[in-house]
Amino acid sequence: MKKLLVYLKDYRRESVLGPLFKLLEATFELIVPLVVAAIIDRGIGTADKGYILRMCLVLVALGLIGLLCSVTAQYFAARAAVGFTTKLRHALYSHIQGFSYRTLDRVGISTLITRMTSDMNQVQTGVNLVLRLLLRSPFVVFGAMVMAFTIDSRAALWFVAVIPVLSAVVFGIMLVSIPLYRKVQGLLDRVLGATRESLTGVRVLRAFGKEDAEVSAFEQKTEALTAMQKHVGHISALMNPVTYVIINAAILLLIHTGALRVEAGVITQGAVVALYNYMSQILVELIKLANLIITVTKSVACGNRIQSVLDMPAGEETQQAEADGDPQYRVQFDHAGIRYSETGDESLTDVSLCVRPGETVGVIGGTGSGKSTLVNLIPRFYEATDGRVLVDGRDVRALDPAALRARIGIVPQKAVLFKGTIRENLLWGNGQATDDEILRAVASAQAADVIEAKGGLDAMIEQGGRNLSGGQRQRLTIARALVRRPDILILDDSASALDFATDAALRRALRELDYRPTVFIVSQRTSSIQHADQIVVLDDGRVAGVGTHQALLESCEVYREIYDSQFKKEAARA
To answer: Which of 134, 143, 486, 535 makes a 20 to 30 Å CA pair with 547?
Structure first.
């Protein structure tokens, strides 16, 4: 949590003025009991109405000045807290954007969402309250004790006795609560994860009639969260009653001692009232401090969770290359392999492949054979744990990730579009592209009819492309990649929703592109890749064969089985 305070450095002035004005308010508040004592002893005792009126005006003035100080302190504290959280949220979001796919897979999206929202709001609340109350409450507590000693040192000894006891109670409960609040936030992650999974997969749930099972599973996670929150709440709830009991017991003893001192003529009745008011102030401030500590405890736990994300390496720093490869090849896989976890088996093993500029490479294999993993090594979404991947003879780990990806057009398996116009979505590929360049890319992606049907480039796309069919989304995502005019184009099973005629027209258009990119086509269809310059056949993470369509039919059993399952059986049925 301490490391996060660096984001507060631009708000030093607000961080100083906020507590300062709160201390001024507290100072005026400590004067009030003395004024009340003077009213009782001199005004009421001597029936001096003029004096009483003047002292009442002093009380009103103290109240107004205290209100002004309080409002000013709140303004500066809120400004610092909101500004701090804004900078922290930007830093966290920027850091998350640099995560590799492996880190995102390990951490989990639901956890990151919780830390960007719930945890961040809790930290903001904690910073706001700390700036307003962290100095004020102890100042009033010890100030009241000092003022009590100026009135009567013997009666004030009760203040000396009660404050350490209250401090022990407050800080003891805080120490017990901190680890428990951390567990609460962890359980909240699980609830959010279940919620996100159920809502995104609601159609599948209904199709298989699993609503009741999901509701039951969600209730179990929610009940676990509720039980932990109740447990922490029971501990935190001890704060107020225990402090009230201690303070009220101290008040009884104080009044008893004060009465004896008044009867002995040592102090006045007004002094007893002042002592009572100071003890009441201590009660109020300790209750505030107790609630502050509960909030700060939550904030510290949430801040530590945010810091743990910031401490995770982005995994995309440039590294020193062992040696350059052959620059005549656009992409090289040099005995590349990858495992997703340190102890897991390799998902890809010993892949070696050389691809020249302008060549088309097809990648095919069974489900889970590592096709997407292979092409994700090129833009360094995943890093090879064995061997290396080179682009233009340079190890991708030695290249700046942003510069590397600026040369690559990627169409992922899931066609993702964002809310906005078609033009805004396509300009993601190249923000400087003209309408003519966009329309040429759209034509190559066989999406011209989509633009025409929707009414032009300014037609709106709903979030996630909900107002488009699967095939329309895929063609627009291909057009978005082509707008970039990339050196390397990766189509990761991105034509699965297209019919055979449109798929064939798309492949023909890609071959006719004037800038001749190196194309990687991941597909389940042999028809989509049979005209590729090279075809890589993967089987359980290993290369089962590399060659042209005809050569693989003769030499690779895995490829021949895939081809026969798609064509010969259909021919037999025909």
So the answer is: 486
